[in-house]
Amino acid sequence: MNERLPSKHVVLLGMGHTNAHVLRMYGMHGLEDTALTCISNFNVATYSGMLPAVLAGQVPREKMQIDLVQLCASVGARLITEPVTGLDPESRNILFQHRPPMEFDLLSIGTGSTSMQGELVVNGGSVVAIKPMQTFLERLQHTLTLLHEKQLSRPLRVVVAGSGAAGLEIAFCLPPFLDKNWGGDHEISIVTRSSRLLAAANAHTRKIAIRQLHQRKIEIITNFDVQSIQDEYLETPEGKRIDADLVIWSTGAGASDFLGQLQLATDEKGFLVTHPTLQSITTPHVFAVGDAGTISTSPTPKAGVYAVRQGPILWENIQRSLVDAPLVHYRPQRSFLQLLNTGDGKAIGQWKRFAMSNQWLMAWKKSIDSRFMEMFEPVRMEDDEDPMQCRGCGCKIGSGLLDSALSSAGTLDLDDAAVIAQTAEDRIIASTDFFTSPFEDPYLTGRIAALHAASDIVASGASAQHALSNIVLPEGDSAAQGRTLRELLAGAKREFDAMGAAIAGGHTIEGPRLEIGFTVIGKAIGKNLLEKKNLQTGDGLYLTKPIGIGVLLAARMRGRCAAHDHQHLINAMLDRQHEYAHHAIEAGISAGTDITGFGLAGHLLEMLEASQKSAVLTLNDIPTLPGSTEAVLRGIQSSLSPSNRMSAAKISTTADIRKEPQFDLLFDPQTCGGLLLGVSNDQLPTLQSLVGDRLLVRIGTVFDASDVEKSLIVN
Ligand SMILES: Cc1cc2nc3c(=O)[nH]c(=O)nc-3n(C[C@H](O)[C@H](O)[C@H](O)COP(=O)(O)OP(=O)(O)OC[C@H]3O[C@@H](n4cnc5c(N)ncnc54)[C@H](O)[C@@H]3O)c2cc1C
User: CA-based, 20 to 30 A from 356: which of 331, 385, 634, 635?
Assistant: First the structure.
């Protein structure tokens, strides 16, 4: 089926409650001729309503997280996790530090609020702010680990700053977390600058909460305006002090400085001011929702319930804006049910003037929360469902097919980069590669395509100098095509710049789907090149990146690559290798290749054949990407794996090892894979000192060819 570039572009900045609703609706109904991009500072979004339950150990951590990688991939939206540095509302461009400005037709800002605000001076104390919530638990755990080093001979003194609903829930739900991660005795208090806690709640709720805090021996300290946090105490401007080893900062919602950088109208607190349509009062093509926005005519407290109810209004108004129809108004609900988790299996429930506390309310809260989160489960393919080709290196044809075609044409050069001109001083090397992008983001596609295409030059130890692009752009209006092309080339340029190479030209045509590749011309930097034929007996085989890229790309296409694993995948693919190869040349190494489409086994077998050697690999020493063996165990594989697996016939190993998921990964095609180097004992110390702490793992040893049919032994 032909792809077509949508002509309109909606961007969601900050994937809080309201914007997440739009993403979900986009997955269910789509937006005609419109692409959707989500920008988030993390690749998961945390549901605050469940954080206290996770702290109390009532709910596993994954349950409070929306996996944006999987959700975006499953609905065909692009996810960007690079920081936004500003906005040009006039030209409708979002600005980033590294990537080019991104044009949009409509933008919705839902970046929430911050808990750290005002003139607080932090002077050596241990403070853990509740936001960003995505990292709260790690930061808390890490701080407790550091506090352990103090070897306190008294209970740990924990102060929760902020006595709103969030602070109260944290204080109630903290003890199980401390029991698990601190172990020793602890004392908890809540501190507030206000004269009473839960200032926004009704008197019954407050009374119940105070009674329960007393029963749980959680101290309440009112009228205490924290001005500074010092080592072991908090201080007010008047010099009043409270002892504290650990401060959890959960005060009321404040506007982040980020909102002030967007050139949009803000209120006196710094929030973006909107009409009841949720549009910025100064810039109608920008919406501001949830905590980030304040409706000038009906400001509400900052609470998730309002952000959630704004979701359907935002979705409606985005659709209407795209066709220039009149927008609808959001009318904040007058009252809402509030359920506070007290960490003991009960919840305090408040509805208008009423309040009560019991286990039934907690069960109700749990079911509301989990039903809410279920809505954001990505649509996943079944493990045994046959996906489209997983792209990346999976677009390659099998090695057998290639070898026979090359030999029938009378060409069978086993090295991937061709030496095309050779004088005493200069060796010019060229290589070409292209793929169908596995990513929704043209900028990332450009980066990966550049690294992928330069990989053969890099792996030969040469220095890339020039690149010529070959791009196939899907049909679309010229603005959309221009946008895509600019992003592709900007991404590629970033990588070629880093290698010291320039994009010297290229050719772009229109076609059924986005494809991109480069022909890269390089120059040898020294006397040696890294070549497949140079393995020597006794060389150690060293790998510079973990394997598993192909299977994770395949898992991603099925909506089964978790956000955490995805981050490792992208980091591995973007891990530049050119300096590495130059270090190898400097260390006098001459045997090397890159691990790409034919997988580790395929490329190693090529080296062994070219060098007339055998090798032994230790399976457990081969580094693999997190999530890759799990994906194999689920039965997921890259499109090219089955043909790569034919090289298993040349491997001598046991039946048990053949069943290991790591064994399957030997045939996993890699897009932007690492280098495989043959390193002698003499060369190793120099190489190690040059590469420093970058990955360099010995995975096997080369020996004299003993069995030509089975030149690779896997233990
Ligand atoms: C512990 C706790 C419990 C709470 N419980 C409740 C409750 O039970 N009921 C209730 O109504 N309210 C509750 N709240 C308040 C509620 O969390 C907020 O009002 C609500 O989350 C606001 O939703 P939002 O969509 O505006 O922003 P958020 O949910 O905060 O989402 C904003 C998103 O934007 C991302 N982001 C931030 N800055 C940037 C940036 N510069 N670039 C890209 N992305 C960015 C963040 O990572 C986040 O994913 C609670 C708050 C806390 C702290």
Answer: 331
3-state secondary structure of 415: coil
- Is residue 38 part of the annotated active site? The answer reads no
Architecture of the CATH domain 121-249: 3-Layer(bba) Sandwich (3.50)
The CATH class for the domain spanning 416-529 reads alpha beta
**8-41+81-114+255-333 has which fold?**
FAD/NAD(P)-binding domain (3.50.50)
pTM recorded for the entire structure: 0.90
Question: Which residue's alpha carbon is nearest to atom 2 within ligand 1?
Answer: 166
Give 553-567 pLDDT, tens digit per residue: 999 988 889 999 999
Tell me the pLDDT tens digit for each residue of 63-85.
999 999 999 998 999 999 999 99
Q: Which two tokens stand for residue 280?
A: 């910025």
Instruction: Report which of 666, 538, 531, 543 is spatially closest to residue 611, judged by C-alpha positions.
Output: 531
Task: Return d(Cα 556, Cα 565) in angstroms, integer.
Answer: 10
Q: Return the CATH class of domain 380-410+531-715.
A: alpha beta
Q: Which of 654, 568, 670 is nearest to 619 (CA)?
A: 654
Phi and psi (nearest 5°) for 438?
A: -85, 0
Tell me, what DSSP letter sits at residue 4? B
370-413 pLDDT, tens digit per residue, is 999 999 988 765 555 555 455 445 445 455 554 555 455 454 45
Residues with CB under 6 A from ligand 1: 13-18, 39-42, 45, 48-49, 51-52, 84, 110-112, 130, 132, 134, 165-166, 169-170, 250, 258, 290-292, 302-305, 307
Residue 232 contacts by C-beta under 8 Å, 6 or more apart in sequence? 125, 243, 244, 245
* Residue bearing the CA closest to ligand 1, atom 7: 49
Task: Using the mean position of ligand 1's atoms as its centre, give its distance from the Cα of residue 112 in Å.
Answer: 5
Q: How would you write 478-531 as a 3-class SS string?
A: HHHHHHHHHHHHHHHHHHHHHHCCEEEEEEEEECCCCEEEEEEEEEECCCCCCE
124-151 average pLDDT score: 94
Give the DSSP letter of residue 667. Answer: T
| Location of structure tokens 């079944």 | 382
Strand partners, 541: 678, 700
Domain boundaries, the chain: 8-41+81-114+255-333, 121-249, 380-410+531-715, 416-529
pLDDT above 70 (res 135)? yes
Q: How confident is the model at residue 425 (pLDDT cuts 50, 70, 90)?
A: low
* HSE (side-chain half, CA atoms, 13 Å) at 453: 36
Question: Which residues contact residue 701 at a Cβ distance below 8 angstroms, ignoring those fewer than 6 apart?
Answer: 538, 539, 540, 541, 615, 616
Separation of CA 49 and ligand 1 centre (Å): 9
Angle at 459 between CA 457 and CA 460, to 5 degrees: 65
pLDDT digits (tens, 9 = 90+) for 88-128: 999 999 999 989 999 999 999 999 999 866 678 888 889 99
Question: 8-41+81-114+255-333 and 121-249: same fold?
Answer: yes
pLDDT at 527 (0 to 100):
76
Q: What's the CA gap between 229 and 242, in Å, rounded? A: 10
In the chain, the amino acid numbered 491 is G
pLDDT, mean of residues 130-135: 95
User: Mean pLDDT over all residues of the chain?
Assistant: 92
Residue with tokens 């080893």: 245
Instruction: Spell out where 131-218 has E strands.
Output: 156-161, 186-191
- Report how far residue 672's alpha carbon sits from residue 393's, in angstroms, rounded to the nearest whole number: 9
Comparing 633-647, 661-675, 686-700, the range with the smallest average pLDDT is 633-647
